[in-house]
Amino acid sequence: MNLKEFANRLALSQTTVSRALSGYPEVKQATRERILKAALEYGYRPNTSALGLATGRVGAIGIVLKGGGEFGPHTSEFMGGLGGRLQQEEIDILVSTVDSQESELSTYRRLAASKRVDAVILHSPFLDDPRIALLNSLGLPFIVHGRTNSDGNFGWLDIDNFGAVRQSTSHLLDLGHRRIALLNGYRGRIFAEHRQDGYQTALSERGVAIDPALCGHGEFTDEMGFRLMQGFLKLDERPTAVIAGSMMSALGAMRAIRIAGMKVGEDISLIAHDDVFPYISPDHLVPTLSTTRSSIRAAGARIGEMVLELLQGTPAENLREVWPVELVIRNSTAAVKPA
Amino acid sequence: MNLKEFANRLALSQTTVSRALSGYPEVKQATRERILKAALEYGYRPNTSALGLATGRVGAIGIVLKGGGEFGPHTSEFMGGLGGRLQQEEIDILVSTVDSQESELSTYRRLAASKRVDAVILHSPFLDDPRIALLNSLGLPFIVHGRTNSDGNFGWLDIDNFGAVRQSTSHLLDLGHRRIALLNGYRGRIFAEHRQDGYQTALSERGVAIDPALCGHGEFTDEMGFRLMQGFLKLDERPTAVIAGSMMSALGAMRAIRIAGMKVGEDISLIAHDDVFPYISPDHLVPTLSTTRSSIRAAGARIGEMVLELLQGTPAENLREVWPVELVIRNSTAAVKPA
What we know:
The structure is a homodimer. Chain A is an alpha/beta fold.
């Protein structure tokens, strides 16, 4: 039933019906209620824009987050970018919270079965990710934030984590550093594997042996940076330079260095990956912090765009992007001090 | 295929099918999975409004965020708590992004008209908030995170911002401080007004005059804390103590103090409001930071609970809570140094 037929059946103008259904206050409450009731009764679906009516779309994109750690500063930035793009089409983000991988998988089933979203965004992929096969079998369109080795024809956007850490490691090698520590994410996550590869590649290119004692893994918190850095400083042969995976872990590392009576950018060089949080900037730290920079908010906006393109029929294989990461040299990286 | 045909094919009642598809816990897991599997196999796709017809609920709670600043660290923590509570009922969070107050208001109209959410959470209220009247007129149930002076019968949860800053100010006064600066949010926001009142009340109680030059306002970023603190330090009569509105602004203030060659907890006392971000803790700063503490994640969880209670028929006037805020004294606050 289209708007005209529905309005005729109610003996109301199309304008009144459509105003009532989009919530304009000019329509009397009683009329609005009559229209809403009739819409449900006749199966007339007012639940999205005219576009949604025409295409069978519900006007929401899903994202599933683990309740513990996944509601963090990266997520809010990413969602800010995503929401900013989707709002232009009056599309909402449906956030489902889960507490395990099992409940994540059953949530995708629920979202697909109840036709609650038009597509989902899959994030933090693993090397071999069971979610890919599930989403494909459910026929639920999706874009991956990150990359995976899993089979399947799907679109994704990732930053060049390999290139980022290869660049930062090479920059430190250029400055004469040979004992370079890496604060990385957990093994198994693709981004952490790519960063590890970039680090090892840069070291190998210069013939520098990899020392596992200089590689730490964890969630990117201030405390993680602090504790791992304190551990590095206790080594017999301490690092002269450190690569931090995020601004948060960099803050902790800076503090550990300061407490040890050393100066960042003099005694120890520090470079961090900067996701461009608006509330904490490498330009304002002391010393200003050298970084590899890529805005996670911009990635969110672009992924919103890619989801829209996917829903408009762009083939998934045309929706794959690796974003280069910019090296920004500031004052926290300097030539190694002679022993 | 409609609900009746689908239920017949499964030899189940329509009620069981529709309860299973809307995630009610009364349905056995095995039955639910059988129904979900069959729904996919037969292409039966109940849309959310069909589910709404059966159960009267769509299973989503709305939250509207401004695209610029409202996707920040406070929001992700709050949503982590909210989502953690709602997931137990398989209820999702629908996030709508807007770019102005006007589009925020029209979004509530759209959400109500399309019956896309069962309730919304209104946050960051103003003293006199036009959203309250609109939500009431739309008949859209809501809980406010914060408080407002607006008329209307609604539930809310707020922390005791007045008591928090009254406590922190009194603590500094007890230590002999008389020049106490306040890094506050923007005027007009209720939480910032309450904090201002707490500050002024504590000073008045001791007969200390209020100096407007010691009160700064802005978004709680690292940069805001840094810039305002630098300004305070340039005053002819600089403050001997500072109250920061968040961990982010405290980080900036600490840096400004350090650059000026002074020590937090010796030359200047600092106390911050701590929303308990898991990735940056006052216990790990140097010196450890005295705080007033209240977990915004816990508030999100409780508001999720309150929304569920509201939808189950608890009167809104029984859903009002002010949470006390705990003063935690660490090493960043100390007796004022003799001039």
